[in-house]
Amino acid sequence: MSSQGESHKPEPVARPCGFPPEIWLRIFELATDTPNLYCRDIRDPFDGRAGETGGAISFYRREERSTIRAALVTKRHLVRVCRQWCNLATPLLYRGLYIGRVRRLISLGNTLQESQTGGEGSIPLGSHVLRLDIAFGSPSEEGDLQITITDVEDHLCRIISCLSRLEILAVSASWRSISRGRPPVWMPTRVAACLGSTCGTSLRRLQWTRNSGLLFKPGDLHDLLRHIPNLRSVTGTEISYFPTNPIQLPNADYIGFLIQIASIPAPAPSPFPNIRHMLLKTAFLSSLIPSVTSLLGLTSHLKTVYLTSRGAEALLQSIRDAQIPHLVLHLNKWTSFRGRMRIPACVTHLGVAVDQLQAKDEDYGHFFDWLDMAAEHASALRFVRLLNPRGALDLAKHVNRLNRALAWLGERNIRLEDVRGLAIRPVSRRRLSPQLRS
User: Fold this and answer.
1) In 260-302, which ranges are E strands?
2) CB neighbours of 177 closer than 8 A, spacing ≥ 6?
């Protein structure tokens, strides 16, 4: 027992032991997770697991880029905390590279190449990279404009030469920012060749945004695809279909085709036997129907066909007898749906992707009149899904038009859904800001 004058010392408190490295790593992964960022496949827009996605047609490109940048900021903070966290988080930091400025090419190329010549036992930073986003925006500093297109070609090749495990290339860049307002230019041939030689065996997905000004020349794209045997999907650009000399893509799951040649026999065996999702584009020529028919004959697992405004009427006619359960129509306006656009009788799920975000009441009436007519011929149709969430919200403001459509759709046992697959219910007139909900 201590004396009264003796100072009392508090009992030492045991500090909790630190987490094992694998726990910290899992925490870092959860804190910087970006859903579907490293997904190799195109999810079917009618897949219940797909969430808010339009499959090959995404209306979230801008939001996706913002999410990627936010995750990178978090990762940069993690590597600066301490040496242990730096070692743990560095592979996460370099798993996805995002190039948002032209001048960033120089510093990134230097960093990757310097790590290639590190000491014994060091791991090159490029070996961590699974995804590369090329997203040049309009330059905000004079320094960006001093870099020529040739410089960009050199720096891109330097970077790609270090990415031996690259799986996804996503391009949303516009070379207008480099060529001082000129029209978009082609991706340099040397870049395509470098991709094929360095990442050919590892690449699984090529992705472009619709308005990208940085596209491969058709010939360069064909040459590149011949060096990517494990490719799963190509989005945002189309492959010209040449039946006499098709590209062998045995593992492809989704491809966009540009039909340009008519009445040529299909090759055998099929150059893409496992394809499940296909986008078709063509000119407004019914004479191309035999070529489309032969193309569809090469697929035994085809589940979803995407059609755009470019040749939709002719292509719908060409697939009228095809056994396709899912059909997606991606058009510019609600008035683009025409009476001659017939839905194949075997289609059970129809996806409607319209770029127009706001429309007049009579425009929505035009669409529902077309859908009423089309449903008479599509005896198997049971689901109609609106794939543009913002456009669907505007539709909900037209209460009378929407409620009348829901009434006759219900009589035909057809369910109208939002992008998440939730049923769209009748909207109350009392609500000032009606929204779609289940």
Assistant:
1) 277-282
2) 102, 136, 137, 138, 139, 144
Is the CB of residue 309 less than 8 Å from the CB of residue 281? Answer: no
Neighbours of 17 (CB within 10 A): 6
Omega into 269 within 30° of 0, i.e. cis?
Answer: yes
Phi, psi of 87, deg, nearest 5:
-65, -35
Q: Give the C-alpha separation, 11 to 8, whole Å.
A: 9
- Annotate 113-178 with DSSP letters as a single string: HHHHT--TTPPPGGGG--EEEE------SHHHHTS-HHHHHHHHHHHHTT-TT--EEEE---GGGT
Please answer whether residues 92 and 75 qualify as being in contact, where contact means their C-beta atoms are separated by less than 8 angstroms: yes
Residue type for 343, please?
Answer: I
State the Cα–Cα distance between residues 312 and 217, nearest whole angstrom. 25
* Backbone torsion region of residue 178, taken as left when φ is above 0, otherwise alpha when ψ lies between -120 and 50, otherwise beta: alpha
What phi and psi values does residue 200 have, to the nearest 5 degrees? -55, -45
Q: Which residue has the tokens 């827009």?
A: 45
HSE-up of residue 116 (Cα within 13 Å, Cβ side): 14
pLDDT of residue 95: 85
291 in Cβ contact with 262 (< 8 Å): yes
Predicted TM-score (pTM) of the model is 0.78
Rounded Cα distance, 63 and 254, in Å: 23
How far apart are the C-alpha atoms of 355 and 353, rounded to whole Å?
Answer: 7
Residues (pLDDT < 70) of the chain are 1-18, 35, 48-64, 118-121, 137-149, 174-185, 210-213, 238, 240-246, 258-268, 283-291, 293-294, 298, 310, 429-438
Measure the CA–CA gap between 21 and 39, rounded to whole angstroms: 26
Nearest to 398 by CA among 357, 362, 353, 373: 362
